[in-house]
Amino acid sequence: MINVFVGYIKKNKVKMILMILPVMLTVGVLFANSVSKNSQAKYVNDVIYKNFPVFQAEIVNLEKNKLRELKDLDNVKSYKVVNYYGEASYKNLSTNPIESFDKDYFDSYRLNLLDGTYPSIKNEIIVSSDFIKDTKLNLNDSIILNIQKEYVGNDNVRTVYNDKQDFKIVGIYTSPDVMKTYGGFNNILASKLDGIPDEAITYNGYINLKTGFNNIAKEVNMVSYSLDSSSDYILLNEAFERVMEESYSLSSQFDIFDKITIIASALLIFNIFVLMIREITKELGLLRVVGMSKKQTTMFLILKNLVILICGIVSGLILGHILAYIATRNFVLTSASIDPRNAPIIYRSIDYMRPIIVMTITIFISTLIPIFRLVKTSPIQLYSNYVTTNSKLNKALNRIFTEKTKSLTSSLAINNIFLNFIPVVLSSVIIGISGYLYMCNYISTDADKIYISPELQNLDGYDIELKHNGDISPLIDGYTMHDVNNIKKITEVDDIKIANTDNCYLDIDKSRISEKYKQQNMISKDSKISDFRMNLVALDKESLDKMIKEENLLEQGNPIKENNSDIPEVILFNKYYDYRDANVNNFINDINEGDILEVNIKGLDKNNNVIYKKQKVKVAGFFSKSWLDLNDSERLVPDMIMSLEDYENIANLNTFTSIKVSFNSENKNDSINKVIKMMESKRYFDYDTFDKILKEMNAISWQMKLKKLSTSYILGLLTMINIFFIIVANVIIRKKDYSIMRAIGMPKRVLRSIIIKEGLFYSLLGSIIGIIMILLDNIRWTSHLQARSIAKGFEYTGKWYDLPYKYILIFVILSILICTISSLFAYKKTKDMKFIDSMNED
What is the DSSP letter of 588? Predict the structure, then answer.
C-alpha cells in the first residue's frame, strides 16, 4: 500500500500542493496573529509595571477624619498618603499641586531624581523637568509660590487659604515618558510647609486593595461608600487599569480577526475537500476493485489527508514565523499610548497548539464524509457512481436558469454551477465576507463623526475653539477682551462666542438630591456633605440667547433677563449622565422656575486672593438634553448657566477659558491659521478645529482598518484557490460531455468561455452577498447614530443609509478579477486534458 500511496502522491503533486496551500495560509495567519498579539501584550505589560504606579485607587484631597477610617476597611491591603498643601502658582507660567515629600510615595510613581538632592529642611522643594522647562528656572534658584488651598471648614463653610512662601529648588525629577501620555506627574514636592490651618489639612495618596484589580470599579466605589466620601476623593487608577485591560485583551484566546479567519478558512478547506469527494470516491472505488480491503482503503484516505495536514501545518508554521515578525514590527495591536513595535517576539506552546487543533478538527471532519461512503458502498458502486445526481432543487433551479439562456456556453456554465451548488454558494459567501471586511472600513464618514465625538459636537458649527489648557490657573491668566478685539480685526470673522467654565458648589439639603445621583457618587444617608459640585458655565448674553433660539434648548422657563438685582438669574441643566444605566437622570428632585438657590462661586477679592463667594441665584429656566452636546463640561455632574457679565461681577474676573470663532471666508484654513498664530505664544493656549479632532480620531482607528484589510486580502487569496478547485472539479465531472463536444469540433476557446462565465457567476453572487452585508451594516450604523442623537436630544440630519459607492465599485472589480484569474488558472489546468480517452469511460 505504501508504494501505491507514494505513486499517488507523485502523480497528483500539484493537486496536493493546492490542497496544502489553504491549510498553510490559515495556520500561518493564526500563528502569526497569536504570537504578535502576545508579544506586544507582554511588552506593554512590562512597560506598564516598569513605568506606572501599580495601585488600584488614588486618594485625592481626603480629610483627616476619613483617613483614620481608611485603616479599618477590610479590603484595604495598604495605603500611602502625603500632605496635600494645595495648588502652587509661579507667576503666570505654571500651576501645580504641592505635596509633602515622601521617598516611598516618590518611588511608587516611578519618578527619578535627575539632578540635585531630595528636600530635607523647611521650604526646600523638588520640581519636575517640565516645570523647569516651562518656567526657565534652574537648580538652586529661590522662588516665590502663590499657594491656594480649598477646604470645607469645621463650620461647613467652603473656604480658600491663600499664602505666599519662599522656596528653594534643591532637586529636579523626571517621570517616564510613557506615563506623560496619561497625564504624567508634575507635582511640586516640599519638605514642610507652615501656616496651613489644621482644618485645611488633607491628603493625597494611593490604596492597594486585597482584591487587586478584580472587580476594581466596584471595589473602589465600596471604599468611597465605606468612608462616607463622594467619588471625587477616591478615584480609580484609570490609566493603569485601562492599559492593563488592553494588555489582557491582546492575550485573550481569539479576537474577531481570529474568529473570522478560522470560520472562513475552515469553510474553504472543507469546501475543497467536499469538491474532491467525487474524485476521491472514484479513486477509493478503484483501490477496492484491485483488491484493497475497506480497512486498507480507509487508511489510504487517512494517510493522504494526514500528509496534507502535516505538510500544511509545518509550512504554515514556517510562514507564521515570518508573518509574526512582520506583524509585530509593523502593526500596533493596542490602542494604549505605548508603541509595542519593538517588542521581543515570544513563542509559546499555545501559539503552536491553537492553529494545529483548528486545522486537525477541520480536516478530520472533512475526512469523515468519504469514509462514510467507503463503508456504506460497494467497490463497483464507488467506481461507477463518480457523478452523483443533483437534488431536485438543484435540477429545478438549473432548468429555470438554462431555459432563460440562449447561449450554449452560458447554459453549460450554469449547468456546471449546479453540479456543485453548495460549494459554489459557500465560495460566494466567502467572497462576500472578504468584500464586507474591505468595505466596512469606509462606512463611517467624517460627517458621521459629529454624532459620536463630543469634541466635534462641542464646536457647535464654529471653525475653531480657543481653549485653556490648565497649565496655569484660569484665575491667574486667560483670554481677555483684548484678545477678542484682536480676533475681530480679522476681516473674515463671522461670529465669536465667549465662555468661562469652572466648578461651583450648591448649598442644598441632600434630601432634595435624587437617590440615583447619591448612589452613583457614593453619598450615604449619614453623609455630612453640605454642598454639591456643579459645572458653572458663563456665556456672553448675545451668544447664550442665540444658542437658546437656534437649538431650542429651553425645556421649561425663560431666557436669562438683564437686571440690576443682587440675585442674578441662571438656567439649570438639572441632569447628569448616569454611567450605570447609560441614561441622563435628574439631579434635584423638586425644583421649579423662580426658585432661589445658594451657590459658592470661586473668584478673586480686591487683593487678587482666591476666595469663595456665597451667592443667591434665581432659576429662570431649565435646559433640555440637547445641552449635553453643545458643552464640553463634565457630564457626570449637572450644570448652572449664567451670563458672562453676571459671572464677571460675582467672581471679579475679566478672563475667559473659551473663545469660539466662525468665519465666512471660502478658505477657512487661512483664517484659522491667523488666529492660531495670534495666540500660540500664550502659556495656556490650546485649540480644537474640525480637522484637528478628525485627525486624532482617525489616527486611533487606522490600525484596526489595516487588520480588517489584511483579513480581506487573505480571504480573497483563499477564495481564488477555492474557485480554482470548483472549476477544475466541474470540468472533471463533465469530462465525458466535453469529450463528445471536442470530438464533433468544439474549439478550446469555447471551453475557456464556459470556464470564465462560470467564474464570473461566483463574482456576481459574491458581490451581491457583500453588498447586502454592507447595506445591512450601514443601516445598523445609521440606526446607531440616530439612537445616539435621540438619546442626547438633538436631530439626526444624515441619511438612513449612505453606502460607500466608490469602495463597492472597487470591491466588485476586484471580485471579478479574482474570479477571472482563478478561472484562467483552471482553464490552463484543464485545456490539455485528454478528453478523447474519457469517451471510453463507463
Answer: B
The β-bridge partners of 597 are: 617
Looking at residue 629, what DSSP letter applies? G
3 state SS for 216-270: HHHHHHHHHHHCCCCCCCEEECHHHHHHHHHHHHHCCCCCHHHHHHHHHHHHHHH
Cβ(498)–Cβ(659) under 8 Å? Answer: yes
Top mean pLDDT of 97-106, 189-198, 418-427 is at 97-106
What would the grid cell of residue 137 be?
528656572
Contact 597, 619 (CB under 8 A): yes
HSE-CB of 325 using CA atoms within 13 angstroms: 5
Q: What is the separation of C-alpha 277 from the centre of its chain, rounded to a whole number of angstroms? A: 44
Amino acid at 368: L
Here the cell at position 594 is 423662580
Cα–Cα distance for residue pair 130/172, rounded to 1 Å:
9
Cα(831)–Cα(749) distance, integer angstroms: 9
Number of Cβ within 10 Å of residue 696's Cβ equals: 12
CA atoms of 232 and 517, how far apart (whole Å): 13
**Main-chain dihedrals φ then ψ at residue 794, nearest 5 degrees:** -130, 160
Beta bridge partner(s), residue 540: none
Beta 76-90 vs 57-63: how paired, if at all?
A: unpaired
Residue count (the chain) = 842
Beta bridge partners of 169: 125
What is Dmax (Cα atoms) for the chain? 112
The DSSP line for 159-183 is: EEEEEEEEEEEEEEEE--HHHHTTT
Please state, in angstroms and rounded to a whole number, the distance separating the CA atoms of residues 199 and 206: 21
What is the SS3 assignment for 410-435?
Answer: HHHHHHHHHHCHHHHHHHHHHHHHHH
Amino acid at 610: V
For residue 519, give the C-alpha cell.
Answer: 448612589
Q: Give the pLDDT confidence of 477-506 residue by residue, as tens digits.
A: 899 999 999 999 998 999 999 999 999 999
Inform me whether the pLDDT recorded for 47 exceeds 60.
Answer: yes
Q: At 737, give phi and psi (nearest 5°).
A: -60, -45
Handedness of CA 722, 728, 731, 735 (dihedral sign): negative
Query: What CA–CA distance (Å, rounded) separates 725 from 796?
Result: 49
The candidate with the shortest Cα–Cα distance to 791, out of 554, 452, 548, is 452
The label of the residue with cell 478685539 reads 485
pLDDT (tens digit, 9 = 90+) per residue, 768-804? 988 898 888 878 877 766 666 655 545 556 666 677 8
C-alpha cell at 546: 442665540
CA of residue 428 relative to chain centroid, distance:
31
Torsion of CA 163, 167, 172, 173, to 10 degrees: -40
Q: Distances in Å between the alpha carbon of 250 and those of 37, 279, 337, 342?
A: 5, 43, 14, 16
Q: For 442, which DSSP code?
A: G
What residues contact 377, with CB distance under 8 A and at least 6 apart?
285, 385
- For residue 546, CA distances in Å to 215, 350, 419, 814 come to 46, 62, 70, 51
Q: How far apart are CA 766 and CA 722, in angstroms?
A: 13
pTM of the model: 0.69
- How much of the chain is helix, strand and coil, in % rounded to 5? 50, 20, 25
d(CA 588, CA 461): 31
